[in-house]
Description:
The protein is built from 8 helices and 11 strands. It has helices at about 20-30, 60-70, 90-95, 105-115, 130-140, 145-160, 175-190, 200-214, and strands spanning about 1-5, 10-15, 35, 40, 55-60, 75-80, 80-85, 100-105, 120-125, 165-170, 195-200. Helix 1 (about 20-30) crosses helix 7. The longest helix has 15 residues, at about 145-160. The radius of gyration is 21 Å and the shape is globular. The relative contact order is 0.21.
Amino acid sequence: xxxxxxxxxxxxxxxxxxxxxxxxxxxxxxxxxxxxxxxxxxxxxxxxxxxxxxxxxxxxxxxxxxxxxxxxxxxxxxxxxxxxxxxxxxxxxxxxxxxxxxxxxxxxxxxxxxxxxxxxxxxxxxxxxxxxxxxxxxxxxxxxxxxxxxxxxxxxxxxxxxxxxxxxxxxxxxxxxxxxxxxxxxxxxxxxxxxxxxxxxxxxxxxxxxxxxx
Length: 214
């Protein structure tokens, strides 16, 4: 009998702004009760109908920097003039309970996590094309043309970091992308280094009995 470790996986999902990270993560959570989406802290202001404690923990820049000084983040990064960070304490609590934790974070933060948690699963989410990415950013209607252009330029820089990830998933259709991520996790949980123990006693007993009969 093969017994796998009960420790949950850490799944890091990154991609350019407009690649559909929020939509994909929401769809994963809707299909899987054993997934938990880590809520990040940010110093940026809420957008639209975003709610504190649901979408992000919204902090002032001063509050964020105080938490940095106390080492309360698994990782943090400054992106387009705002801080983003992953609270450390809840991550280990969830994984210890066998729950798979999803980190939806920017590329800078993901690369820091890779240094600290080498067994994490790193997935880069790509748009079908850069034209579609630009359309998605423009269709948001929540930012100025200058900010949209800045995000589009940042997207090219982030895509250059893609080779540092384990997997790339193209978000052409939400259902297809979610299926691919679920398949990735299934394969990862079958890795030999995730096996806790292998009990061969029953197999050895059967083999011994067969040899005795011969």
